[in-house]
Design brief:
Blueprint: H1 13-43, H2 71-99, H3 104-126, H4 131-156
């Protein structure tokens, strides 16, 4: 990469790739809870805390089972927890990876590989597909982040 292009600017195609992917993943992270809320409202169940099942303007007709686990709602909640376990690591690893000045092709493969794997993981999880399929896509997203970390570590210790 030419020295005149700063690493953390949109002139750097590697940073641009990361910034777009990070923005998409942040949207996913912030919109997933809204899916959970929409599901709770749709079925009027799956509430989390005892006070959620008390009479209020948003819950005018409380029912005793509203705080019991509801699989439809809980599936979305588990997706959110999975995002919280995965996306922050990607955001940090990806930024450090950009600072290590990888080739654009390597960056695109790892960054978009992560995003595509997470999108596939979401689709497989939200439609309750076989665990093995979900684990396959989770593994690919994890491997992409680990590869970014490994590459960055290699640059830091002078192996690359």
């Amino acid at each position: 990469m030419p020295d005149e292009i700063a690493l953390l600017t949109f002139e750097n195609p590697v940073f641009r790739t990361y910034a777009l992917a990070a923005t998409i993943m942040l949207l996913k992270l912030m919109l997933q809870p809204w899916m959970t809320v929409a599901r709770m409202m749709k079925v009027n169940a799956g509430f989390r805390s005892p006070e959620d099942a008390k009479k209020s303007p948003l819950n005018p007709n409380p029912e005793p089972g509203q705080v019991e686990v509801n699989e439809y709602v809980d599936r979305s909640r588990r997706l959110n927890l999975n995002d919280l376990e995965s996306i922050p690591g990607f955001l940090i690893a990806g930024l450090l990876f950009v600072l290590s000045a990888p080739s654009l092709l390597l960056a695109q493969i790892l960054i978009w590989g992560y995003v595509v794997a997470r999108a596939a993981h979401f689709l497989v999880y939200v439609t309750a597909q076989l665990h093995d399929i979900r684990a396959f896509f989770w593994t690919w997203s994890s491997v992409a982040v680990l590869a970014m970390v490994g590459y960055t570590m290699g640059k830091l210790v002078g192996l690359l």
